[in-house]
């Protein structure tokens, strides 16, 4: 380890890597920064997908509950819940995964 001295600024030691460069000259800090930015980007898109899927799910359920009773005679048991879940899951995937990758 070497002590890095600059006029007016004293930093602690900078460790030398096996390749001869110091840690600040390596690509490690840039990689950590890119990881943090990419993680945040994906987290925001996933959160956006969750919020929009919840909003769509609520509106879908309200619209279904406004239907006449005869509408439910044509559907099987649990079909409404299954449709709500599968449709909103597809929307959520489209927003969070597909859009975030582009």
Defining traits:
two-stranded antiparallel ribbon, mainly alpha, single chain, rod-shaped
Structural account:
The chain is mainly alpha-helical. The chain has one domain. The chain has three helices and two strands, in the order ββααα. The radius of gyration is 27 Å and the shape is rod-shaped. The model has no long low-confidence stretch (mean pLDDT 76).
* Secondary-structure class: mainly alpha
Q: Give the C-alpha Rg.
A: 27 Å
H/E order of the elements? EEHHH
Low-pLDDT stretches are none
Individual helix count? 3
Distance, first to last CA: 43 Å
Arithmetic mean of pLDDT: 76
The main pleated sheet reads as:
2 strands, antiparallel
Q: How many domain modules?
A: 1
Strand order in space, largest sheet:
1-2
Query: What percent of residues adopt helix (DSSP H or I)?
Result: 55-70%
- Bin the strand percentage: 5-15%
Number of strands: 2
Layout of secondary structure:
Elements: E1 2-6, E2 9-14, H1 28-65, H2 69-73, H3 79-101
Antiparallel strand pairs: 1-2
Helix pairs in contact: 1-3
How would you sum up this structure in a few lines?
With 102 residues, the chain is mostly helical.
């Amino acid at each position: 380890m070497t002590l890095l001295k600059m006029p007016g600024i004293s930093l602690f030691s900078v460790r030398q890597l096996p390749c001869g460069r110091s840690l600040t000259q390596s690509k490690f800090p840039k990689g950590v920064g890119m990881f943090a930015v990419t993680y945040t980007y994906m987290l925001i898109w996933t959160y956006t997908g969750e919020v929009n899927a919840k909003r769509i799910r609520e509106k879908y359920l309200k619209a279904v509950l406004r239907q006449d009773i005869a509408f439910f005679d044509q559907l099987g048991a649990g079909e409404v819940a299954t449709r709500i879940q599968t449709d909103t899951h597809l929307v959520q995937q489209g927003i969070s995964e597909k859009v975030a990758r582009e």
